[in-house]
């Protein structure tokens, strides 16, 4: 049974995965090459834990125990020395992911499972660049990780049944539900979600309604917990664009990115992480 997890990438998703893993009893190392990123992640994790404590979702003892279980490390080789499972949560770019997985393959114990938190890319293609394709799998978490109940588990062509069984057990210990998905670009949720977000962008571009009213209509009319613009700003419009570009390339015309989305990303309006996306967060 997995007890030691290393999370690579200290952004929003990596921080959330690390915190949720520690909260549910795993020993965690959060790795990022940028010390500033690790410092920011530590503050964000402490903020989330304190907020959960204040709301009564966790006890003080649970908070303190979770925070003690997380170590922060900039050196990849040190971070993965004892890892039984490595979860990658870096940029949604196949070349960058493959380069990382090749390093992980060299540095990790032969029995270590390597998981990617990709929302759309192929675990088969990633696994094929390692000497352990049977131990490569996709674990697609959702933001915010400590609140969202689902993990999509996507097996590559050579992912073993044993690997999937371990990942399902880890997911269960994380207090989450899992669905097993046959590999196909975009899996289940991303294919649906980016279509909604992209169409919302087109409607905003066309002047159908304001961003606020489009979000309100989707939340109240379709019972979504967040509107498509709120979700896009949270995930990152650059991440959303990369996913659309990949699905446009692999699945065709209906995934063509909205010109307005492209324009926002070119302007550096990436969402909450940049201070401004569809909405302005700079005063927050």
TrEMBL record:
Pfam annotation, one family: 3HCDH
Domain 3-hydroxyacyl-CoA dehydrogenase C-terminal: 186-281
Organism domain of life: Bacteria
Gene Ontology terms describing biological process: fatty acid metabolic process
Coiled coil feature spans: none
Domain annotation 3-hydroxyacyl-CoA dehydrogenase NAD binding: ranges: 4-183
Pathway(s) it belongs to: Lipid metabolism; butanoate metabolism
MF-aspect GO terms: NAD+ binding; oxidoreductase activity, acting on the CH-OH group of donors, NAD or NADP as acceptor
Site keyed Important for catalytic activity: positions: 140
Binding-site residues for NAD(+), renumbered to this chain: 9-14, 32, 92, 97, 119, 143, 273
Keyword field: NAD, Oxidoreductase
Gene3D superfamilies the UniProt entry points to: N-(1-d-carboxylethyl)-l-norvaline Dehydrogenase, domain 2 (1.10.1040.10), NAD(P)-binding Rossmann-like Domain (3.40.50.720)
Family: Belongs to the 3-hydroxyacyl-CoA dehydrogenase family.
Protein name (record): 3-hydroxyacyl-CoA dehydrogenase
């Amino acid at each position: 049974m997995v007890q030691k997890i290393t999370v690579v990438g200290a952004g929003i998703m990596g921080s959330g995965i690390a915190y949720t893993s520690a909260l549910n009893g795993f020993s965690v190392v959060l790795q990022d090459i940028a010390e500033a990123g690790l410092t920011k992640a530590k503050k964000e994790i402490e903020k989330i834990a304190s907020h959960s404590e204040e709301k009564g979702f966790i006890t003080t003892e649970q908070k303190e125990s979770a925070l003690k279980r997380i170590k922060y490390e900039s050196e990849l080789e040190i971070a993965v020395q004892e890892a039984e499972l490595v979860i990658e949560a870096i940029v949604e770019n196949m070349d960058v992911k493959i380069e990382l997985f090749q390093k992980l393959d060299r540095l990790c114990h032969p029995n270590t499972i390597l998981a990617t938190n990709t929302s759309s890319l192929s675990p088969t293609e990633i696994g094929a660049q390692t000497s352990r394709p049977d131990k490569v799998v996709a674990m697609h978490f959702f933001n915010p990780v400590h609140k969202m109940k689902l993990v999509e588990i996507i097996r590559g062509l050579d992912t073993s049944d044993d690997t999937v069984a371990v990942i399902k057990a880890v997911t269960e210990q994380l207090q989450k539900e899992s669905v097993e998905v046959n590999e196909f670009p975009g899996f289940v949720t991303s294919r649906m979600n980016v279509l909604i977000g992209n169409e919302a962008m087109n409607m905003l571009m066309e002047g159908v309604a304001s961003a606020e009213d489009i979000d309100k209509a989707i939340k109240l009319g379709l019972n979504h917990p967040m509107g498509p613009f709120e979700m896009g700003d949270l995930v990152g419009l650059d991440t959303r664009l990369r996913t659309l570009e990949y699905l446009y390339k692999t699945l065709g015309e209906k995934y063509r990115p909205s010109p307005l989305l492209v324009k926002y990303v070119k302007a550096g309006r990436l969402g909450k992480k940049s201070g401004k996306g569809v909405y302005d967060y700079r005063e927050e």
